[in-house]
Amino acid sequence: MVDWTERETCVLFGDGAGAVVLEASDEPGILATRLHADGGFKHLLFNPVGVSAGFKDEPNHGVRINMSGREVFKVAVKTLDSLVEETLAAAGMQESEIDWLIPHQANLRIIEATAKRLNMSMDRVIVTVDKHANTSAGSVPLALDYAVRSGKVQRGQNLLLEAFGGGFTWASALLRY
Questions:
Q1: What integer pLDDT is reported at residue 174 of this predicted model?
Q2: What is the number of domains present in the chain?
Q3: What pLDDT does 52 receive?
Q4: E strands in the chain
Q5: CB within 10 Å: which end of the chain, N or C, has fewer?
Q6: Domain extent at residue 120
């Protein structure tokens, strides 16, 4: 599925998984969530032959991912920017009320762009991509786990979790931890 000689796509898949256990509470914990999808961007990140074509472990043969990295970056930053605004509006909150940004760990440049949009210094952003690489769907739960175990995140703080992924899909959750 991955051409290991093509830097733009070989870094897309790390190895990791995470889960979050929720329990009932009298206090609100999930303040707002949002989820979007738009297949109109399929030409920017796709597999030209489809997975049903099979896989041969030869360079550039069979199932390989193609990505227009710069364009994916632009779409990710734009959609995450509007997602932040939408999520905060749904919760009736301001950017200044977010204690921590816990983003999908795909790319440090996307993380930095989102933090800049929120006027957040990077010391209020959880970054694990430098430790674990891009663990795809596992990156947000793994980053949340790191934030809690490291003692950075404290009870009562507001956390904005956000992700952008294949398909294209993008989502957020605004939580009070």
A1: 98
A2: 1
A3: 63
A4: 30-37, 45-46, 66-67, 100-103, 158-165, 169-176
A5: N
A6: 28-42+69-176
